[in-house]
Write a structure and sequence with these properties.
Elements: E1 3-9, E2 12-18, H1 24-31, E3 50-53, E4 56-59, E5 72-74, H2 87-94, H3 104-117, H4 123-129, H5 141-155
Parallel strand pairs: 1-5
Antiparallel strand pairs: 1-2, 3-4, 3-5
């Protein structure tokens, strides 16, 4: 039996009928074709599926889609303004803060949540904010540099 849910997805109101066992991640990827959030572990350990729900980072693999009813969900695709990338997305590019790119959307979303709450975090706060996002390629140095560059711009 499908359940009707209504929520805001990337700043647009949506209504959908969804099976109760479908995760938020499955719904985003398979129904809305928003493939930025990735399934890495399926157990909330890697952060590859991080999205913002009501402004807070959340592993989309751990939330049922029906629980999104009445919420605001923001994915990495929703950060850009048309063809203009969000300042954080651009900073990741400018600082080479990616290699294979699998973790990048989740990493960006965790960092975005931090910057929304605290526009000028310290390096220690950045490291703590992305601690739930695993990266097997970069060693995190350039990721932290990319976020700190945005923090420094925000402080000016």
């Amino acid at each position: 039996m499908k359940h009707a849910i209504n929520f805001i997805l990337n700043r647009e109101a949506v209504s959908i009928r969804i099976e109760p066992h479908i995760t938020l991640l499955e719904m985003l990827r398979e129904v809305f074709d928003l493939t930025g959030a990735k399934e890495g572990c399926g157990a909330g350990e890697c952060g590859a599926c991080t999205v913002l729900v009501n402004g807070k980072p959340l592993n989309a693999c751990l939330m049922l889609a029906v629980e999104a009813d009445g919420t605001e969900v923001l994915t990495v695709e929703g950060l850009a303004n048309g063809t203009e990338l969000d300042v954080l997305q651009q900073s990741f590019i400018d600082h080479g803060a990616l290699q294979c790119g699998y973790c990048t959307p989740g990493m960006i979303m965790s960092a975005k949540a931090l910057l929304m709450e605290n526009p000028t975090p310290t390096e220690k706060e950045v490291i703590e904010a992305i601690s739930g996002n695993l990266c097997r390629c970069t060693g995190y140095k350039k990721i932290v540099e990319a976020v700190m560059a945005v923090s420094q711009k925000n402080g000016k």
